[in-house]
């Protein structure tokens, strides 16, 4: 990053290195491990995923979006660097992520078709048909009543698509067979929805100090959530069922060594932030 404007570099690093669970890159590396390959060689792809995710958080926190003051226990990017630099930092992280994917694919000697598939799926998962489209519908759902089906559609795109891409990218890196890719994709979408349900639960039951962002922000924004539609106990029941289904999806496929991915699923079920 030596050639970047100093304030832009600082803004990018501020959010990218702010900590957090690193769920998405960990899923990429755990998937590679589950398929018997060296996860260290997939590190650039995992980093690219985290760059895409971090860009989305910077933009989500902006006053025109969720208007949050804290993220991961620290002031949000725009509170430190201003809105303009925050927007540019997000733009830069997203763009650099795809360049990193392409450069890593060349370095590892991946077939061109595999590299192009990764980039195509990344664009779809992060873009208008995926995460961005889900965020758009999420904003439009504020202050109005929506169905459970609409809520699940929002979360599948807003959260699930990038989580699924994290797993699928690890599988593509290993050039996995279609049946293995299908099983891993089902697992990813199941834990992606479970992750979002737990987020909704923590917004009700957690504290700002523990979860690192304002508790009760969904209620403040009058957003539809699983607890608001189903109640807290039913939401917890669905969370547990989804997690068990996700684990069973992996354990039923002989081509996957699932131990690390199962640990991640269990962690998501019990996390408090």
Short structural summary:
The protein is built from 14 helices and two strands, in the order αααββααααααααααα.
Strand/helix succession: HHHEEHHHHHHHHHHH
Described by its quaternary structure, the protein is: single chain
The gross shape turns out to be: globular
Beta-strand fraction estimate: under 5%
Query: Widest sheet: strand order?
Result: 1-2
Query: How confident overall, as mean pLDDT?
Result: 93
Low-confidence stretches: none
Number of strands: 2
> In angstroms, what separates the terminal alpha carbons?
31 Å
Share of helix, binned: over 70%
Biggest sheet details: 2 strands, antiparallel
Structural class, from helix and strand content?
Answer: mainly alpha
Secondary structure blueprint with pairings:
Layout: H1 6-16, H2 23-34, H3 43-60, E1 70-71, E2 74-75, H4 77-81, H5 83-107, H6 112-126, H7 131-140, H8 148-173, H9 178-205, H10 208-211, H11 217-220, H12 226-230, H13 232-251, H14 259-270
Helix pairs in contact: 1-5, 2-3, 2-8, 2-14, 3-5, 3-8, 5-6, 6-8, 7-8, 8-9, 9-13, 13-14
Describe it.
This protein is mostly helical and 273 residues long. It has 14 helices and two strands, in the order H-H-H-E-E-H-H-H-H-H-H-H-H-H-H-H. Helix 1 crosses helix 5, helix 3 packs antiparallel against helix 5 and helix 5 packs antiparallel against helix 6. The chain is globular and about 50 Å long. It starts with 5 loop residues before the first helix and ends with a helix.
Task: Kindly list the characteristics that best describe this protein.
mainly alpha; 273 residues; Farnesyl diphosphate synthase
């Amino acid at each position: 990053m030596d050639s970047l404007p100093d304030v832009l570099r600082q803004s990018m690093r501020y959010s990218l290195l702010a900590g957090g669970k690193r769920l998405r890159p960990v899923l990429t590396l755990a998937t590679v491990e589950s398929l018997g390959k060296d996860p260290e060689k997939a590190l650039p792809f995992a980093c690219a995923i985290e760059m895409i995710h971090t860009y989305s958080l910077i933009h989500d926190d902006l006053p025109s979006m969720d208007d949050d003051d804290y993220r991961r226990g620290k002031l949000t990017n725009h509170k430190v660097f201003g809105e303009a630099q925050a927007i540019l930092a997000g733009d830069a992280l997203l763009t650099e992520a795809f360049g990193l994917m392409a450069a890593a694919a060349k370095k590892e000697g991946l077939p061109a078709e595999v590299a192009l598939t990764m980039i195509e799926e990344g664009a779809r998962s992060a873009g208008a048909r995926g995460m961005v489209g889900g965020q758009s519908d999420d904003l439009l759902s504020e202050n109005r009543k929506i169905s459970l089906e609409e809520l699940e559609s929002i979360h599948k795109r807003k959260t699930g698509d990038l989580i699924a891409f994290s797993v699928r990218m690890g599988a593509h890196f290993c050039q996995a067979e279609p049946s293995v890719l299908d099983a891993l994709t089902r697992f990813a979408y199941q834990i992606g929805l479970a992750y979002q349900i737990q987020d909704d639960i923590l917004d009700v039951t957690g504290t700002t100090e523990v979860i690192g962002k304002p508790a009760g922000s969904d209620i403040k924004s009058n957003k539809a959530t699983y607890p608001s539609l189903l109640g807290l106990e039913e939401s917890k029941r669905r969370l547990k069922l989804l997690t068990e289904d996700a684990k069973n999806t992996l354990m039923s496929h002989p081509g996957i060594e699932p131990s690390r991915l199962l640990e991640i699923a269990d962690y998501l079920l019990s996390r408090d932030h």
